[in-house]
Amino acid sequence: MPFKKLNFSELDIIEMKKRSKLLLHSLRKRRSVREFSSRNVPIQVITDCIKAAALAPSGANKQPWHFALVKDKMVKKQIRIAAEKEEKEFYKHRASKEWLEDLNQFGTDWNKPFLEKAPYLIIIFSQIFEDTENGKKRKNYYVSESVGIAAGFLLSALHNAGLATLTHTPSPMNFLSKILKRPENERAFLLIPVGYPANDAEIPIITKKPFSEIFTKI
């Protein structure tokens, strides 16, 4: 593989501190939203954010992800019906008592109207392996880690663009591969409704762990 010299632009200390503070201030305002407006969002904004997510690092540069963008109302309805079927099972039979108690603070249940209300759904698929042109399967490495980093890039990019998101993970999510006709080497990793929040949207009052609890300097 050929190499080239890194073109690295070093910032002065003042600018570094400024940028780090600005990003911290911005991300402090990011919240998961469950009540969306149906207002349209320019698709170019969404695709640019997905392109930013695709710049994430990955194991051996395999880039083991695929992003499916759903706008079609009928497909969103199919997804909602299938997701709510799994969510009913989760809330009634699959989730432990402790898990349900932890979820109570958010006031959630099996009903997921945001899957139809949000103008877009982004489904991130992880690719367990890749098919080569000669029909052989090549293994991908650190798939969950790589796709998780890309998901973080995407959420940050969408927030930076002024949009609201929700990380939704109905379990299992096999129905997404069937509805969206994805190949056998892909597994649904994350379902992200995206758009503007509803005018009357509410969010739970939560706090983050103290920095001293999640940080160690050695």
Explained architecture:
The protein is an alpha+beta fold and 218 residues long. The protein has eight helices and six strands. The protein has a four-stranded antiparallel beta sheet with strand order 1-2-6-5. Helix 2 packs antiparallel against helix 6. The two termini are 37 Å apart.
> Low-confidence segments, ≥5 residues, pLDDT <50?
none
What share of the residues lie within helices?
A: 40-55%
Radius of gyration: 19 Å
Beta strand count: 6
Percent of residues in β-strands:
5-15%
Which structural class matches the secondary elements? alpha+beta
Strand order across the largest sheet:
1-2-6-5
Mean pLDDT: 95
Helix/strand order, N-terminal first: HHEHHHEEEHEHEH
Global outline = globular
What labels would you give this structure?
single chain; 218 residues; alpha+beta; four-stranded antiparallel sheet; two-stranded antiparallel sheet; 15% strand; globular
Task: Please sum up the structure shown.
By secondary structure, the chain is of the alpha+beta class. It contains 8 helices and 6 strands, in the order H-H-E-H-H-H-E-E-E-H-E-H-E-H. The protein is globular and about 55 Å long.
Write the layout of secondary structure elements.
Elements: H1 13-27, H2 43-53, E1 65-70, H3 73-94, H4 97-104, H5 114-117, E2 120-127, E3 129-131, E4 137-139, H6 143-160, E5 164-165, H7 174-179, E6 186-195, H8 211-214
Antiparallel strand pairs: 1-2, 2-6, 3-4, 5-6
